[in-house]
Amino acid sequence: MAIATDIATVWSQVLDIVRAELNTPSFKTWFEHTAPLEITDDGAFVIGVQNDFARAWLEDRYSQRLSAALEQVTGVGLRIQIVVDRDASSAEDLLLEPAVTVNPSDVTDTGSLKEAAPFKEFDPKYTFDLFVVGESNSFARNAALAVAEQPGMKYNPLFIWGGPGLGKTHLLQAIGHYVTENFPHKKVIFVTSEQFTDDFVNSLRAKRVDNFKQKYRSADVLLIDDIQFLESKEGIQEQFFNTFNELQRRGKAIVLASDRPPKDINMEERYQSRFAMGLPADIQPPNFETRLAILRQFAESQGITVQQDVLTYVAEIASPNIREMEGAMIRIGAYMDLSNRPVADLPMVRDVVKDIFPERSTRPISVATIQREAERFFGVTHSDLVGSKRSQSIVYPRQVAMYLSRELTDLSLPKIGAEFGGRDHTTVMHAQAKIQKLMGAQREVYNQIQQLTNVIKQKS
Ligand code: ADP
Ligand code: MG
């Protein structure tokens, strides 16, 4: 009989059956790395997988399906036994046809290694209209609006500072939106200080420093985000201050954002004092009412209908980081889609959110941690995760890791792109939208994201 001699063929037929039944992006992720090892004397068909996550996942969710398929192929009742086998060779050759999982147009991953470029457009949701004003942020918001209304006339530079996820980038981009709409002839440049640095380094390499200077000095409004990254980079600090002085002298508007006040930025004092000479404006963590108002607006914008006590509950337990709060709402929305619930009620939400805000982790989560745990979870290597392969079994874990980097860290899109092998910020945006959509469409994706978040939070 075939089974004794050719377990590879059997397994390949089993996978064919399972593949036809499953329609999830993770089919390849979980099954591609399985390898048939042996049939034991006591009737177990032993499958090797690369790690413990994969073993538990397959055992929990697929052992019945696999047994049934195995019986169908062999005609005898064999037990499935899944073991961790670190050398399990990829069974990719058994999966000649790509698993049909998601719409191919959804999985494009440009993976381009573009040089740092400023945003071509601002994030459409980062406008003044969509910025909820409360006690904690009204000072910074009013200052930002004043600059937007009369660029260069007031508060030059405006220096916005505050903790992660409190709305600094939102305000910078709101200025960008406002100025481009109301003063179309004015040139607005928005970059993070890291993009500014990369741009300079690239211009040096290409011997085009003049172009660099000209580009930044032609701005009417220069918005530089996360200025703290200029710390301990003396060469670029000097470039930056040359640009800064030149723009200021000509009455052009400069707005900077940082995670700390000017005096705490580790730079020469003459630089620090330049930051402080305009208007330093801080954003504080939002109080309960503001959190509630932001949540309500966000739920509405996402078309998520929730009971009032749900909003109150989330606003109560959420961290001050607004990005995290929005992440919780996105998962609530995804869960509602999956379970066909028109309205979110409290018991459901408690259940969804308990995984998102577990015991407070005190240290900030790093992209490195997210990548490491995603690699372990999906059984892919680091070089694949950040590399250029575009097979679905790699693209999907990569997109999940990008999604979580967006949600769980306060890094900018370009910075996250850089951490994933120098990808463009639009690739990160695409991954975020794609995973958000999948979460609401496929329970398995939702479960994976919840589970992976848990692991990451525990490891931080
Ligand atoms: P930061 O740059 O300070 O880390 P962001 O500006 O990226 O924070 O804000 C994080 C998220 O919270 C964004 O999605 C942003 O739109 C949202 N957000 C922050 N503050 C507000 C606010 N006052 N009203 C509405 N949304 C806000
Ligand atoms: Mg920011």
> What is the first-to-last residue Cα distance?
52 Å
Which overall shape is indicated by the principal axes computed on the Cα atoms? elongated
Strand order of the largest sheet: 5-6-7-4-8
**Whole-number average pLDDT?**
85
* DSSP strand count: 8
Q: What is the CA-based Rg, rounded?
A: 26 Å
Question: Could you say what the CATH architecture of the largest domain is?
Answer: 3-Layer(aba) Sandwich
Word description of this protein:
The structure is a single chain. By secondary structure, this protein is α/β, with parallel strands linked by helices. The strands form two sheets. The protein has a five-stranded parallel beta sheet, sandwiched between helices. The chain has a three-stranded mixed beta sheet with strand order 1-2-3. Helix 5 (138-149) packs parallel to helix 6 and helix 15 (367-378) runs antiparallel to helix 17 (392-408). The termini are far apart. A hairpin with a 4-residue loop joins strand 1 and strand 2. The chain has helices spanning 2-5, 7-21, 26-31, 52-74, 138-149, 168-182, 193-205, 209-217, 234-249, 269-276, 288-301, 308-317, 322-338, 346-353, 367-378, 382-385, 392-408, 413-419, 425-441, 443-459; strands spanning 35-39, 44-49, 79-84, 158-162, 188-192, 221-225, 253-258, 279-283. It folds into three domains: 2-93, GMP Synthetase, Chain A, domain 3; 112-283, 3-Layer(aba) Sandwich (Rossmann fold), CATH 3.40.50; 289-459, Orthogonal Bundle (Chromosomal Replication Initiator Protein Dnaa, Chain: A), CATH 1.10.1750. It has 20 helices and eight strands. It binds adenosine-5'-diphosphate and magnesium ion. Magnesium ion binds at residues 168-169, 225, 410, 412.
